């Protein structure tokens, strides 16, 4: 059973006048979509409104997103100035994103750089990884390292060089290592909470206003596998 975020259980990792960073749970959608489910952005607005006793509408800018079954770091802007600068940072890839993933099959190498060309399929909301460029594809690159071997699984640390749709999920599936629980990319069974074992673990970026370097780490969800890592 997934426990989505509410203003009461929201896990805030960093908060100041310009930004707020939270640890997303399985099942949270970052921004409203066609499901009509309450997005994390609205939960954060409610939290700010209540905490600071703000009258009227609370400003909150969505800077980036995580897939619904994924957990970890999400950054929101609390001012329009911060939103503009954060959008530039993320679009220019001036951030360092580190993910943790759990896979069942051992990757071919202990550490490696993966380069594929991802083509998105809008109909079934997936991306397919190709070794060579195909029409409509975009280059995707990441590096991974095996950080822990468990009895039946392998934990990987992943650094993204590009930010493509379902990039980590598609690229790991392409080397025969779909993420635990990720039925969409070939894992054999789902996780009880409907999530996948992919976690946005660490984010390093320059604060959009005070220009200091921020390094934020998100605790992993509490479950048997993550607890072993």
UniProtKB/TrEMBL annotation:
InterPro entries: PsdUridine_synth_cat_dom_sf (IPR020103), PsdUridine_synth_RluA-like_CS (IPR006224), PsdUridine_synth_RsuA/RluA (IPR006145), RluA_PseudoU_synthase (IPR050188). The keyword Transcription regulation does not apply. CDD domains: PseudoU_synth_RluA_like. Pfam families: PseudoU_synth_2 (PF00849). Keywords: Isomerase. GO terms for molecular function: catalytic activity, acting on RNA; pseudouridine synthase activity; RNA binding. Belongs to the pseudouridine synthase RluA family. This is RluA family pseudouridine synthase. It comes from Flavobacterium silvisoli.
């Amino acid at each position: 059973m997934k426990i989505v975020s509410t203003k009461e259980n929201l896990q805030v990792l960093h908060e100041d006048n310009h930004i707020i960073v939270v640890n997303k749970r399985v099942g949270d959608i970052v921004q409203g979509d066609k499901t009509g489910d309450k997005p994390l952005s609205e939960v954060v607005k409610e939290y700010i409104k209540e905490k600071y006793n703000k009258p009227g509408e609370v400003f909150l800018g969505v800077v980036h997103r995580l897939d619904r079954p994924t957990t970890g770091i999400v950054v929101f802007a609390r001012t329009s100035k911060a939103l503009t600068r954060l959008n530039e940072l993320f679009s220019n890839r001036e951030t360092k994103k580190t993910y943790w993933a759990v896979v069942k099959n051992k990757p071919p190498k202990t550490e490696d750089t993966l380069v594929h060309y991802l083509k998105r399929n809008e109909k079934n909301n997936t991306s397919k990884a190709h070794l060579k460029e195909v029409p409509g594809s975009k280059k995707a690159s990441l590096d991974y390292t095996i950080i822990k071997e468990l009895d039946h699984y392998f934990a990987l640390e992943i650094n993204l060089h590009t930010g493509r749709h379902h990039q980590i999920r598609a690229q790991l599936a392409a080397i025969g290592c779909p993420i635990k629980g990720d039925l969409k990319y070939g894992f054999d069974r789902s996780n009880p909470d409907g999530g996948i074992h992919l976690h946005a673990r660490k984010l390093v970026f320059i604060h959009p206003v005070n220009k200091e370097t921020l390094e934020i780490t998100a605790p992993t969800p509490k479950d048997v596998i993550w607890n072993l890592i």
